[in-house]
Amino acid sequence: MKSACVLLAVAGLGFVSSASADPRETMSIGVSIEPPGLDPTRTPSEAVGTITYNNIYEGLTRLDREGHVQPLLAREWTVSDDGRVYHFILQDNVLFHDGVPLTCESVRFSLLRAGAADSTNPDRSFFTNISDIACPDASHVDVTLKQPHGSFTYELAWNDASILSPVSADKNVSHPIGTGPFKFEEWQRGDHVTLVRNPEYWGKSPILKTVTFRFMPDPLAASNALLAGELDAYPSFPAPEVLSRFIDHPGIRVVRGTFPFKAILALNNARQPFNDIRVRHAVAYAIDRKALVQAGADGEGTVLQSHMAPNDPDYAALPDRYPYNPERARALLKEAGVRPGTQLTLSYPPITYARDTSEIVAAYLEQVGLIVTLQPLEWPAWLGQVFGKGKFDMTVIAHTEPHDIGIYDREAIYFHYKSPEFHSLFEQYEATENPEERHRLSVAMQDRLAQDEPNVFLYSRPRDTVMNSHILGLWTDQQIAACPMGDVSWEP
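Now predict its structure.
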């Protein structure tokens, strides 16, 4: 789910396919975590979207750098009066990288595949609301929903709504085929993924000829390379304490932007003791979230009260229901029958913020009598055991998907939250497209989550990009897990 991008100079590095390439037409982009595969319709890993979103794959719609829905493979659409039928008109002359033309049948295949009973799509429940997809002809698509869903075109812009070629979809994990401005060239496990310009791209041709995503998890090594001129940029720089090294350095600038980063202590609501709301409230009281914010991002993060990042237009600055109060936490635990010395496991994926936050959270919980065993997991194990099967006690993770409060209404969600009250609010929210009413209901959903505290909402933080001052077009605000390179270039 969570990753960062790094742009590296390619001159002299062995993974570049053409040593004679003009360095101004080539960039290498690193990610902090190697993705488990390259099919975003199968896994929630942010590293996949970072590499593939609007680079390899495209959807019917897209999110721009301000987070607004824009046309992409669908050049226009209309919606029926009852909000259930969407009529899309596809772009002309679009080819997948395998030469197969984009048609209505491609869209029908992709969306029905995402909602199929055996689908592992992270947002499968979104696609199961589709009751029928009709193809009047090759360039027109009629999608009928079971229930109105006001966020439909917004969610079609997510990574997991990518439109795939029916001929090659089964091989996308290791050899991705899309319609985007770049084609897959190679994946050298443990080192990099390389993309090349798509000469038959239906839209504006990218400026860069080659883009290499290099797996580079060590921020100290990256900062040294930036200072040495070997790295061009590092979006989502993971170590804010290192940023002072770049002050007044010629040719390098640090840009502080935003992204929908929501760090949570996820609690397994289906397991004791977290199936008791008093225990969930106790855990929230036991953690000094203000101290967590001060510990990272130069103290410029935001304490969260619900599952919404401050850069979201529907974000509500709710009152703090759970200020740091270990005495209140102990009292609630005693009331719930949780004895001192109760042992719990806190699992976390291999990301710096998750590890550091987990260590601090464990110390706070031990102060109120809970004995916490820290369990570091590699990404495949975390995705399979925690996210996939929901087999865990607690985990620290940051959700970086945009406006994803709807995950709390899913039948199968890893923290097992179920609330009739939240479900009713979410149904009303998706049944209307009125902006004022949607905002009111969004705030009500945030407030409901704050009352139930299915997870302890920890903090949001800004997004720091360290970059060569001559790079143009790189996203410094990130509205979705993505590092789109189609408009990126070097200053003339």
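The first strand starts at residue 5 and ends at 8.
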